[in-house]
Automatic annotation (TrEMBL):
Keywords: Heme, Iron, Metal-binding, Transport
Molecular function, one GO term: oxygen binding
Taxonomy of the source species: Bacteria, Bacillati, Bacillota, Bacilli, Bacillales
Binding site for heme: 119
Presence of the UniProt keyword RNA-binding in the record: no
Entry-linked InterPro entries: GlbO/GLB3-like, Globin-like_sf, Globin/Proto, Hemoglobin_trunc
Source species: Planifilum fulgidum
Full protein name: Hemoglobin
Family to which this protein belongs: Belongs to the truncated hemoglobin family. Group II subfamily.
SUPFAM superfamilies (UniProt xref): Globin-like
């Protein structure tokens, strides 16, 4: 009996993760709530995200090998992540998933994990200017 494939394998592995990251970050950079949180040179952020999503969806533990335990919430504490910003992040990710063509049960599984994670990152109360 063969081992069940990981979500990472079912979506197409490294190529799909790279395409997802490439589709996601231009949206983040263009979003008025998200752009201020990111550096002008987004390349290092994209690389970390590629490593993280590979691991997060069941691929090799690339992020941990290079950067240690993800400690997502702790690593994001310096940034004011409001409920509106978490929703904006999810909106950008939904568009990127659409662009890459991830559908069906894999999309649902990915989305569920992404929603939980985005909400876990919220560390700042909503500010009036953050609402769209």
């Amino acid at each position: 009996m063969t081992e069940p494939k990981s979500l990472y394998e079912r979506i197409g592995g490294a190529d799909t993760i790279a395409r997802l990251v490439a589709a996601f970050y231009p949206r983040v950079q263009a979003h008025p709530l998200l752009a201020p949180l990111f550096p002008e040179d987004i390349t290092p952020v994209m690389e970390k995200q590629r490593l993280f999503l590979t691991q997060f969806f069941g691929g090799p533990p690339l992020y941990s090998q290079k950067h240690g335990h993800p400690m997502l919430r702790a690593r994001h504490l310096p940034f004011p992540i409001t409920p509106s910003r978490a929703q904006a992040w999810l909106s950008c990710m939904a568009e990127a998933l659409d662009e890459v063509g991830i559908t069906g049960p894999e999309r649902e599984e990915m989305w569920g994990r992404l929603v939980i994670t985005a909400h876990h990152m919220i560390n700042t109360k909503e500010e009036a200017h953050d609402k769209e």
